[in-house]
Amino acid sequence: MNGYSFPFAMFPLRRTLGQSDELNAVTKLVKNPEDLDWAARRGEFVGQSHWKMHLSLAYWFLIVMRSDAVPALHEDSKPGLVKLQADIDARPDLLHLRQWVTGQMNSAQYAATPGALPNINHVLYRIMCQADFLCVHPADTEISPIPQWKSTIARGLVVDEAGSMSRADFYALWGNCLLPCFLFGDPDQKPVVLTTDETDANGNLYNRFAADGAVSPLKYLMATGIPVFRLQDSTRR
Q1: Which of 106, 132, 141, 154 sits a CA distance of 20 to 30 A from 195?
Q2: Strands 157-159, 133-134: parallel, antiparallel or unpaired by DSSP?
Q3: What is the reported pTM?
């Protein structure tokens, strides 16, 4: 995190990526705390990762586990994180994990301890449960453990760029939960529609629902009569 400004009381968790990315980040940063650009140097034969250190799940993991690579919690930090840290400090079953993160044990030694990987996942999930909000891509809401967080902790949804979002993605996010939902965006911005009137050799449309797909969730819900707040003047130039 460049500059290391710490949010008081509020605990934002920036976009969480796949569990493997967060685990890789924890492993890389425990081995070499200065290697913040590890994700950009994984090679051309490895899938590209958009992982960033700032406010990531791995970042908060290192803070709670008292790594020297990140700032420490202080009196203005969220009470839930402080309590979680104290609980982890007192648990004998997480002693080896604490020793590994703080440099008292190397990675090979830690890997040989009982429950090495489950213990990391356990702490990551408990940290996620303390988050005031998660920033995720719609598709990531189907990746464990985010569905559990959404069903047990989330109290609302906020969608940015809703004018370019597909309704299928929106329904996957909002469907079967009916959480309070706020959508932001330009209703005239066209969603991404890969095919419109293209046909095969027999004249059959590849996408028979192109017209329906061109209606964003923002425009669709506006048409139902939900309250809309329109920006009169933008400060963004």
Answers
A1: 141
A2: unpaired
A3: 0.74
Helix, strand, or coil (residue 12): strand
pLDDT tens sequence across 176-222: 888 899 999 888 887 776 677 888 899 898 888 888 888 899 999 99
Question: Any idea what DSSP says for residue 141?
Answer: G
Alpha carbon separation from 190 to 70, 164, 169 (Å, rounded): 41, 6, 15
Residues in Cβ contact with 85 at an 8 Å cutoff, skipping those fewer than 6 apart: 64, 66, 73
Residue whose pair of structure tokens reads 């970042």 in the numeric block: 59
Which is nearest to 16 in space by CA: 54, 45, 66, 73?
A: 54
**Alpha-carbon distance 5 to 3, whole Å?**
6
State whether residue 134 is helix, strand or coil.
Answer: strand
**CA–CA separation, 93 vs 2, rounded Å?**
33
Rg of the chain over Cα atoms, rounded to whole angstroms, equals 22
Report whether the peptide linkage leading into residue 145 is cis, meaning its omega lies within 30 degrees of zero.
yes
- Residues of the chain above pLDDT 70, percent: 81
What is the arithmetic mean of pLDDT over 5-10? 37
